[in-house]
TrEMBL record:
Transmembrane segments: 29-49, 69-89, 96-114, 120-143, 155-177, 189-208, 268-289, 301-324, 331-350, 356-378, 390-412, 418-438
Descriptive protein name: MFS transporter
PANTHER family given in the database record: SYNAPTIC VESICLE GLYCOPROTEIN 2 (PTHR23511)
Bilayer topology term: Multi-pass membrane protein
Top-rank lineage group of the source organism: Bacteria
Subcellular location field: Membrane
Segments forming domain Major facilitator superfamily (MFS) profile: 29-443
Alphabetically ordered keywords of this record: Membrane, Transmembrane, Transmembrane helix, Transport
Coiled-coil zones: none
Length: 452
């Protein structure tokens, strides 16, 4: 009698990723995404360091409309780019957007260095922001979808920590250039050199396959298996000889799906968190070099202080990477946001140079820890067909806050420090309440696949 052999059971993609384990592939992906993330941090914070030189070159007054517009342009571009590229990555795949956004970011970043006037520079910064606005939703979706469950939160915080490295790099570069060139010339070198790390990131990205989750969601089972086999070869493990479980067919996903069903509440609360945290963070740090300059510090001292504040971010990330796995994403996020609200008031009360330095360093520590936890938490709350769309939307809310923050942050220069910092502290407190109201802990949980 012939015995029928049952075919092997279908293998869920989460099981496949977990069985392939953590290895060289994930560490390489972290280094590649991290390099581009650091380069993006340089581009986002660039104008706050370049503005004194640009003002000298084009005769802009402190706090003038053109100066504020230059600080706003990058964020305006990122607002449009985050929503557009996030949606496109869910439609055509992560890798295509992964490569396109970096290429455009380098081109437009370099274009700004050759600006003959303020209008050219504003347009170049807007287009740079449009390009790099797509990096956030795609990089975090890629990292979340390639890392085993037990390590996912930690790796997402590790990726966000490259922001601190970019901040350190742009502060150090601005400081070095300020000693070599006059401010009216140094800013051009700063814009040009800040664009170059993206070239290295682009070349490195060519060897990264598309996300197997995204491929499966788009019906490309063969390509998804090939992507997992590349991970297996890199990690020196074996992919089980079983077909991949295909998620149930979903209707064509549009951004409107973010506001239907169970995901709608998460979308709304996350949007408020991203908006509040971003308004306070950029409102303080986009104007901080100019604020310190207005307090009488010379340009070299301003850049040295900015470098020290950037270094204070690193232990904030390190602790966040530990806490998201030890106590969970939600509690870590809420704790850091509450500490940020307190830190804003301590900064307000500081009345000595050392007090300002210590309280701003503490605020930098708390804010970047909050960002680390938020970047770990957010992609885990959206299902695969909506992950980059959702990341794009909530990060778009952050970019909207970035557009508004230079105008609000200008209060720091007009002597209304108490008003500005009270508003920022309130933003952090409201964000903390919203974080707790999400009511879901994703630590150790598999990524949701279906839109429900």
């Amino acid at each position: 009698m012939t015995q029928t052999v049952s075919p092997p059971a279908a293998l869920p993609v989460d099981d496949a990723i977990d069985r392939l384990g953590l290895g060289p592939f994930q560490w390489r992906l972290l280094a590649i995404c991290g390099l581009t993330w650091a380069a993006d941090a340089m581009e986002v914070l660039l104008m706050s360091f370049a503005l004194p030189g640009i003002s000298a070159a084009f005769g802009l007054g402190r706090g003038s409309a053109p100066a504020t517009l230059l600080l706003t342009a990058t964020f305006a571009g990122m607002l449009v780019g985050a929503v557009f590229w996030g949606w496109l990555a869910d439609r055509v795949g992560r890798r295509t957007v992964f490569l396109t956004t970096v290429t455009l970011g380098v081109v437009f970043g370099l274009a700004g260095a050759f600006a003959p006037g303020v209008t050219w520079l504003v347009v170049a910064r807007f287009l740079t922001g449009f390009a790099i606005g797509g990096t956030l939703p795609v990089d975090y979706a890629m990292m979340a979808e390639f890392v085993p469950t037990a390590w996912r939160g930690r790796f997402l915080v590790y990726l966000e920590s490259f922001w601190a490295l970019g901040t350190v790099a742009v502060a150090a570069l601005a400081w070095g250039l300020s000693t070599a060139f006059e401010p009216a010339v140094a800013w051009r070198w700063l814009l040009a050199l800040a664009a170059l790390p993206g070239v290295v990131g682009l070349v490195a990205r060519l060897g990264i396959p598309d996300s197997p989750r995204s491929l499966l969601a788009r019906g490309r089972q063969g390509a998804a298996r090939a992507a997992l086999e590349r991970v297996a070869r890199s990690n020196r493990t074996a992919l089980p000889d079983a077909p991949l479980a295909v998620p149930p067919p979903a209707p064509r996903v549009t951004p409107a799906a973010l506001f239907r069903g169970a995901v709608s509440r998460r979308t709304a609360l996350l949007a408020l968190i991203w908006f509040g945290l971003s308004l306070g963070y950029y409102g303080i740090f986009s104007w901080l070099p100019s604020y310190l300059r207005a307090q009488g510090l010379d340009l070299g001292a301003v850049y040295r202080t900015s470098l020290l504040l950037a270094l204070a971010q690193i232990p904030g990330y390190v602790l966040a990477a530990y806490l998201v796995e030890k106590v969970g994403r939600r509690a870590t996020l809420v704790g850091y946001l509450a500490a940020s609200a307190l830190g804003a008031y301590l900064f307000l009360l500081a009345d000595t140079a050392n007090g300002v330095l210590l309280t701003s360093a503490g605020l930098s520590f708390a804010l970047l820890g909050a960002w680390g936890a938020l970047y770990a938490y957010t992609p885990e709350l959206f299902p695969t067909p909506l992950r980059t769309t959702g990341m794009g939307f909530v990060s778009g809310m952050a970019r909207l806050a970035g557009v508004l923050s230079p105008s609000v942050g200008a209060l720091l220069l007009t002597g209304q420090l108490a008003v500005a910092l009270t508003l920022f502290a309130a933003c952090f407190a409201v964000a903390a309440v919203c974080g707790w109201a999400i009511g879901v802990e994703t630590r150790g949980q598999r990524l949701p696949e279906a839109v429900g």
